[in-house]
């Protein structure tokens, strides 16, 4: 008999869509570290444990990540009703005017076509605007996202790393014109990066029913503890193009906090990674925590966080805050 805790499912904000409390994303790994075969194995392991939400983006590995995920899911022969999939658009993959760093109508209506082709899908469940675009009126973006949903190319739309004011402006434009509203934001959120989710967005959860699909629960690996003694060979910070991570991952103040958290994880009988992921999922405003893995063993390790959730009562959460404060 499987003694592992069952996967909880949560509504995506005020929408009716239900997503697994822990989900699986492809940033960094698909294309850079994971080929289609390994992606298929990781996806299968996550799905078998109840994960139903899978996240991607047009810009991950310049479109290759979407292609790998699409081929892997096709090989797994999952029924389309059995999973929720998202992608994100903004950065672009074509070096031409209107195709880079924009949310204008031309780009959005063409970007979704390319993403669907690479994912081998007729529609995505959620389409995110991957960053705000100060050069395009928010009204133009809202109308284009509404049209994408109306065409059936996406079922819901949301934002990623938008400010609270930008999210509210988009929502109010949609409300005023009776358009499809943004229902979800995808921000970074972890034990070391909390301000936006806990403070800036605080009013939006009740005011507009904002849902969250949070990313980087392990702070790019810092919260695993593997960078306490420098950058190990084969880690994310050692990958070409990710040199910018090195200073952050070896920051002595942050690693001091990680060392103190390790004692709490030991007491709870879990790994640092599991504690960090469970802590994110314990926030009632978080719809799902996006995890990543380059091996099946990492998928299982991450999903072990479900067993920690019940231990994170208010008293333990206060204690973790005290530990972080030093």
What features would you describe in this structure?
- There is one protein chain.
- The protein has 326 residues and is of the alpha/beta class.
- It has one domain (9-227, 283-307): Alpha-Beta Barrel (TIM Barrel), CATH 3.20.20.100.
- It contains 13 helices and 10 strands.
- It has an 8-stranded parallel β-barrel, surrounded by 4 helices. A two-stranded antiparallel ribbon has the order 1-2.
- α2 (36-48) packs across α3.
Widest beta sheet: strand line-up = 3-4-5-6-7-8-9-10
Output the structural class: alpha/beta
Q: Give the domain tally.
A: 1
User: Quaternary arrangement of the chains shown?
Assistant: single chain
Q: How many distinct helices?
A: 13
Q: How many strands, what sense, and barrel or not for the largest sheet?
A: 8 strands, parallel, barrel
Estimated radius of gyration: 19 Å
């Amino acid at each position: 008999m499987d003694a592992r805790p069952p996967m909880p499912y949560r509504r995506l904000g005020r929408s009716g869509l239900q997503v697994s409390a822990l989900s699986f994303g492809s940033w960094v790994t698909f294309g850079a570290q994971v080929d289609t075969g390994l992606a298929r194995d990781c996806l299968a392991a996550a799905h078998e444990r109840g994960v139903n939400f899978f996240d991607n983006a047009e810009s991950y590995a310049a479109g290759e990540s979407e292609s790998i995920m699409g081929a892997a899911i096709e090989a797994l022969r999952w029924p389309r009703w059995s999973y929720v999939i998202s992608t994100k658009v903004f950065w672009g993959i074509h070096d031409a005017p209107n195709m880079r760093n924009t949310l204008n109508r031309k780009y959005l209506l063409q970007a979704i076509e390319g993403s669907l082709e690479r994912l081998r899908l007729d529609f995505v469940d959620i389409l995110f605007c991957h960053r705000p675009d100060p050069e395009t009126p928010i009204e133009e973006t809202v109308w284009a996202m509404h049209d994408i949903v109306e065409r059936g190319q996406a079922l819901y739309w949301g934002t990623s790393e938008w400010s609270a004011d930008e999210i509210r402006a988009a929502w109010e434009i949609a409300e005023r014109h009776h358009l499809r509203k943004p229902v979800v934001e995808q921000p970074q959120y972890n034990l070391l990066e909390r301000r936006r989710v806990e403070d800036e967005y605080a009013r939006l959860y009740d005011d507009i029913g904002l849902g969250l699909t949070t990313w980087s629960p392990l702070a790019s690996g810092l919260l695993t503890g593997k960078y306490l003694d420098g950058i190990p060979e084969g880690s994310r910070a050692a990958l070409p193009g990710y040199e910018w991570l090195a200073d952050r991952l070896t920051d002595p103040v942050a690693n001091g906090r990680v060392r103190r958290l390790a004692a709490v994880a030991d007491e709870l009988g879990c790994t640092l990674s599991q504690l960090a992921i469970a802590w994110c999922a314990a926030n009632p405003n978080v719809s799902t925590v996006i995890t990543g893995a380059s091996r099946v063993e990492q998928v299982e390790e991450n999903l072990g966080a479900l067993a920690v959730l019940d231990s994170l009562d208010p008293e333990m959460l206060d204690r973790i805050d005290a530990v972080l404060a030093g």
